[in-house]
Amino acid sequence: MTETLSQQWSDEGVYPVSEGVHRVPLPLPMDALTAVNVYIVETEAGLTVIDGGWNLPASRAMFERALAKIGRTTRDITQFLVTHAHRDHYTQAAALAAELGCTLRLGAGESQSLALLRADPTGGDVHIRALESAGARQLIPGWRQWLKEQPTESETWPDPTAWLADDEFIATGDRRLRAIATPGHTMGHFVFADEQAGLLYAGDHVLPRITPSVAFESACSDLPLRNFLDSLAKVRRMPDMVLLGAHGPIAPSSHARIDELILHHDHRFELCVRAVGAGAATAYEVADNMPWTRRNRRLAELEPCNAALAVVETHQHLDLLAASGRLHRQDRDGVVHWSPAAETAALPTSAG
């Protein structure tokens, strides 16, 4: 393993992970995430690519340069394994799979989101409705402007050639990758484990430096944060592996990072309860009372997209607190209001 957390992970290049496995960061223009990692697994039969990048000319060119550095071309790709149906993971994989005639695999839980995205690549009004429900109408103009600025003309959302099933094993040359359903970040999110090599291709389920967002999808389950925490516990019960996330450098321990994420959400639950106890009544008001990012920024200091994500995620914490009996939920004119409930109820557990 040749990378450390101190490196600039998003710089263009082909970074060795282990024998025959490479990390390739691809650009995400106009996105605070900067880059997305795709992983290339070399075999005698061809290449397996895990996640595909955003289907933009700059991304395609960088991907082809990366392949050339290892003496390959796109024609060597035999299959794409995609962790979930967000644009930075799915759209370039889908375009290349159609062009090359190779296999494209995706979790079956993404089928509803794909259908909605084919109808409206912006996601329609689902995110607007979420902000309205959270009492965050003041964020909607910024959100709409952010949407207008996003290039969507090259995005296509076809169904994959094969839907993934939980605990399915996928042959990749001499390797066997185990596909593990991890709903939460999206309903159909999957991770891929090379248990013999000790590698976990984690997509956006476990990220080394940032906290994955929850419920940012066109179709969403009732309690996505509960699903996310359950999925963290599921992966934590597996052997510890090297963490190969979609955004950020390689990290040495999936267990260590999962433990950090669980503690983070436990702390957010406590902050939500305190904020409601102090008088915050909507998800927007609660989010406005909490610090954000490692720099402890205020909600008003976040970019429009990140501010919207923060409020929606806060709403998910509040929903789960209500489901566990810690808070009371009441809908008033399309806005959800929260108030303290019985003090004896326990916080939602994320220990699995």
How is this structure best described in words?
The chain is an alpha/beta fold. It has two domains: 15-138 and 160-259, Metallo-beta-lactamase, Chain A, CATH 3.60.15; 261-340, Winged helix-like DNA-binding domain superfamily/Winged helix DNA-binding domain (Arc Repressor Mutant, subunit A), CATH 1.10.10. 33% of the residues lie in helices and 22% in strands. The chain is built from nine helices and 14 strands. The chain has helices at 57-69, 87-100, 111-119, 126-133, 140-149, 224-236, 254-277, 283-288, 304-323, and strands at 15-18, 21-27, 35-43, 46-50, 77-81, 103-107, 162-164, 168-172, 175-181, 190-194, 199-203, 242-245, 327-332, 335-340. It has a seven-stranded mixed beta sheet, covered by helices on one side. It has a five-stranded mixed beta sheet with strand order 8-9-10-11-12, with no helix packed on it. Strand 2 (21-27) and strand 3 (35-43) form a beta hairpin. The longest helix has 24 residues, at 254-277. The protein is globular and about 60 Å long. The chain starts with 14 loop residues before the first strand and ends in a 12-residue tail after the last strand. The mean pLDDT is 93.
